[in-house]
Amino acid sequence: MKKTAGRPRQFDPQAFLDTALHAFWRNGYHATSLAELKKASGLASASIYKLYPDKRSLFLAALQQYMEAGLTRLHQREASLSPEAALRETLDFGALLSTGPDGEKGCFSIAAANEMLPGDDEVRRKIEMMFHGIVSRLTAILHQGQQQQVFRSDEDAQAMAEAIFMMLEGMRVYGKIQPDIATLRAANAFIVRSVLKTHPLAGEE
Prior knowledge:
Layout: H1 13-27, H2 34-41, H3 45-51, H4 55-80, H5 83-97, H6 100-105, H7 108-116, H8 121-147, H9 157-174, H10 181-195
C-alpha cells in the first residue's frame, strides 16, 4: 500500500512566536516555562523544538521581532511624514503605549534589560542595537527638520535625539502607574516646542 503523506503542521509559526513574545513580556524570561508555552499554544514539544532548540533561542527570537517592529514603525514615519509630523506622531504613539493596558505592560526591551542585564552579552547587544537604532532614526528626523528650517539648528541633532529617546523610554516606565494621557501629551507638546525653530517677530530681524 502506498504511504500517505505525513499530516502537515496545523499551526502557524508566526502565531506561536507571538504567543511566546507576550508570555515572556508578561512573565519574564525565567518565569516562563516551555510547559506554559506548550499549554498556551496547544503545541507538542516536538513541534516547538522543530522551530526553536531551546527556550533561550525562542526568547531571543521574540525579542528580535519586538525590536524590529518598533524600528520599522519609526522608519516608516521618517520616510512618509514631514519631520515635524514624524516627531509628533512618534511622541504621541509613545503616550498611547504608556496608558491603559499597554502602559501597565511597559516596554518589553526595558523589561528584558532589567531582568537579563548585566551578565547576558547577547541580550545586551540586541538591546543596544535597538536603542541606537531609535536614536539614529530620531537623529535623521531632526536633521532633516533642521535642513528644512523647521527645527532649531543651534543644538546638535543627535544630542536632541538622545534627550527625546530618554524621555520616550522614561514614559514607558511611567506608564506602569497609569498616568493621564493628557499629562503625557502636554509633556510631548513641550518637547516639540523645545526643538522647533523660533522665528523672529516682525521688526526684530
